[in-house]
Amino acid sequence: MSTMTQPTRPTVTSGSSAAVPDSDVFRRGEKPTEPTIFEKHSVGAVAIDLPGLDVPEAPVPDGLRGRGAPAWPELGQLQVIRHYTHLSQRNFSLDGEFYPLGSCTMKYNPRINEWAAALPGFRDIHPLQDESQIQGLLELLWTTQRFLAEVAGLPCVSSQPAAGAHGEYTALKVIRAYFKDKGQSQRTVVFAPDNAHGTNPASCAMCGAGAVSIKTKDGYTDIDDLKRAIDAHGAENIAAMMITNPNTAGLFDSKITEVADILHGIGALLYLDGANMNAVLGKTRPGDFGADVMHYNTHKTFSTPHGCGGPGWGPIAVRDFLEPYLPVPRVVKRPDGAFGLDFGAPKSVGKVRSFFGQVGVAVRCYTYIRACGGAGLEHIAETSVLSANYIAARLRSVFEMPYFKPEKGMYCAHEFVTVPRRLLDKGVTLVDIAKRLIDYGIHPPTMHWPVIDCLMAEPTETESKQVLDRFCDVLLRIAGEIESSPDVVRSAPGDAAIERLDEVGAARKPAVVWEG
User: Residues 6 or more apart from 58 whose CB is under 8 A from it?
Assistant: First the structure.
């Protein structure tokens, strides 16, 4: 590795200049290349011993037979564990490093959540067991729904959706069913701000609705553009507006009640994308500022596992007039005090997934809420907003903050957006800055969204002031490197298992099949 690409690690103290101790040097690049698991194949090795058959052996019908056993690698259990341990050591993870992805809310998942979800009474339940045998689980799900209803300020909750985007889809299906039932099937237009999450218009398309972009001004909804859009598309054709609040500019939209009044005035509904509920827990409720329906991203707000296609959970909360259209089965408490699954809802949109939700994630969510309590949930919002504003205040002299409103006395809500134009004008790119962060053991923030050439960072409430200071120090250090030795930044990462990839080539010509 050339001297030019070696990360430099000066030791300074926290403050206006960067502090990056030598002890923080990462040495991912010194690890040997990890062979694929196929290359570790050892004929005859096995990782588990299966129990003997407890039923009579029966041949596989000819119509179900394959062309032979799959060519899976054979390894012993220890070799499998070491292989995936080695791979994990090459990755960034929230358990190992600071992960300030804006809008994604990568926060710590307390281990007590995992302990609770692994209790045999939850872990060993079969999804087809009779409800009389799973009263404890059904009570937990019902209680969790009550908690989510209270936090949302919306009385009715469905725990069935499998993820946040799936919650959007389900909620839009509910809205569609509601208007059809009212004889207003023509209401198929859904508004979304130009800084909306990409899943919002995608969910609209999945539900057969047309998504119309509404302009934002200084990060807030442009009321005049909203009114123009209503006139252009016809008030009688508007179904809803999907809005995130706090929004993706890291701002609480102070015009939210005006937006709600305008929509309700034409018979349309306000949908809240609950992605950023972490910033308002216990401080305000969507139902109180005009939302009619919302979804939760429980991984963002209630510390459940995140990403990789699951496990996920995206429950939705709605006003009472939308309850008849919620998915079935519904977890209910019967008059005799027993808990059960109710399929008797003739106006329901039906099932949107198997069974009654992602139970393992629901247990984790329940555990987190009970561990925090009401005061703890409010403290989450206070601390996450304080953390983001602390970082923004430390960086503002070098990293421009386009949405900073000095008259409001704060920089942002739970996340901040910086467009470091003065640094980029010196001949580096946003990717260069992001890649250089990897050398210092920090996962890059969200890039180029909601505006071009921006970094959007969200520290969450789970990071200590020490971690926040180090993040600021590293960014200020990189700003200094851009001034003094820009080639170090342009060639980053200098200490990683692999250097920069041809991302376009990888997307267009992916190699996804082992050909060894």
Answer: none
pTM of the model: 0.86
Q: In CATH, what is the architecture of 125-357?
A: 3-Layer(aba) Sandwich (3.40)
Cα gap 216→214, rounded to integer Å: 7
pLDDT band at residue 308, thresholds of 50, 70 and 90?
A: low
Indicate the class that CATH gives domain 1-36+76-108+376-503: alpha beta
Under 8 Å between Cβ of 234 and 227: no
Residue spans of the domains in the chain: they are: 1-36+76-108+376-503, 125-357
Strand partners, 212: 191
* CA diameter of the chain: 77
β-bridge mates for residue 405, sequence order: 410
Angstrom distance (rounded) from CA 248 to CA 273: 11
Q: Which amino acid makes up residue 57?
A: E
Mean pLDDT of the chain: 89
Tell me how far CA of residue 97 lies from CA of 71, 92, 491, in angstroms. Answer: 36, 6, 22
**pLDDT tens figures, 343-353:** 999 999 999 98
Least confident window among 158-167, 377-386, 388-397, 498-507: 498-507
Peptide bond into 246 cis (omega under 30): yes
Angle at the Cα of 105 (from 222 to 289), degrees rounded to 5?
A: 40
Task: Give the confidence band of 28 by pLDDT, cuts at 50, 70, 90.
Answer: low
* 1-36+76-108+376-503 and 125-357 have identical folds: no
Among 202, 219, 118, CA closest to 164: 202
CA distance 43 to 375: 57
Helix (H, G, I), strand (E, B) or coil at 158: strand
Backbone angles phi, psi at 231, to 5 degrees: -65, -40
User: What percentage of residues in the chain have a pLDDT greater than 90?
Assistant: 69
Q: Is the pLDDT of residue 7 over 50?
A: no
Reported as a single tens digit per residue, the pLDDT across 70-83 is 888 999 999 999 99
